[in-house]
C-alpha cells in the first residue's frame, strides 16, 4: 500500500490496486498484465517514493512575552475583522 505521506496525491488505486477494473486475468486467481503493472508500480513507489517529504519543523516559535500576547488578544477581541500580517509574523517567526 502506498500512503499519502510517502507519495502525496495518491488515489484509491494506489491504496489497493486489486480494485482496478482490469486487475483480474482470464482465469480465476490470475492477474492480467495491467494488474501486474499496478502491483509493480506500487512496489516501486514503496521502495523509492517519487517525493521525499520531511514533516517536521526546523525551527520553533519565537519567545513572545505574555504582555504582547495579551495585547494582541485584546486588540483582536475589540476588532475581530482586524488583520495585521506584520504582527502575526512576529508571533510565528515568519520571514517576509
Description:
The chain is mostly helical. The protein folds into two domains: 1-56, no CATH class; 57-96, no CATH class. It has four helices and no strands. It is elongated, with a radius of gyration of 25 Å.
Can you tag this structure with a few keywords?
96 residues, mainly alpha, 2 domains
What is the compact description of this entry?
By secondary structure, the protein is mainly alpha-helical.
Strand content: under 5%
Number of domains: 2
| Poorly predicted ranges | none
Q: Quick one: how many beta strands?
A: 0
Kindly report how far apart the N and C termini lie: 39 Å
Largest sheet: none
* Computed structural class: mainly alpha
What letter string, H or E per element, gives the SSE order?
Answer: HHHH
Helix content: 40-55%
Rg (C-alpha, Å):
25 Å
Shape verdict: elongated
**Count of helical stretches:** 4
What is the residue-averaged pLDDT?
76
Amino acid at each position: 500500500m502506498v500512503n499519502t505521506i510517502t507519495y502525496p496525491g495518491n488515489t484509491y488505486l494506489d491504496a489497493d490496486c486489486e480494485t482496478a477494473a482490469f486487475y483480474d486475468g482470464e482465469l480465476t486467481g490470475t492477474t492480467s498484465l495491467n494488474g501486474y503493472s499496478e502491483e509493480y508500480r506500487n512496489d516501486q513507489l514503496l521502495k523509492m517514493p517519487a517525493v521525499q517529504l520531511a514533516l517536521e519543523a526546523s525551527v520553533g516559535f519565537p519567545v513572545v512575552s505574555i504582555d504582547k500576547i495579551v495585547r494582541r488578544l485584546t486588540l483582536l477581541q475589540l476588532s475581530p475583522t482586524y488583520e495585521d500580517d506584520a504582527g502575526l509574523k512576529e508571533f510565528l517567526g515568519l520571514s517576509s
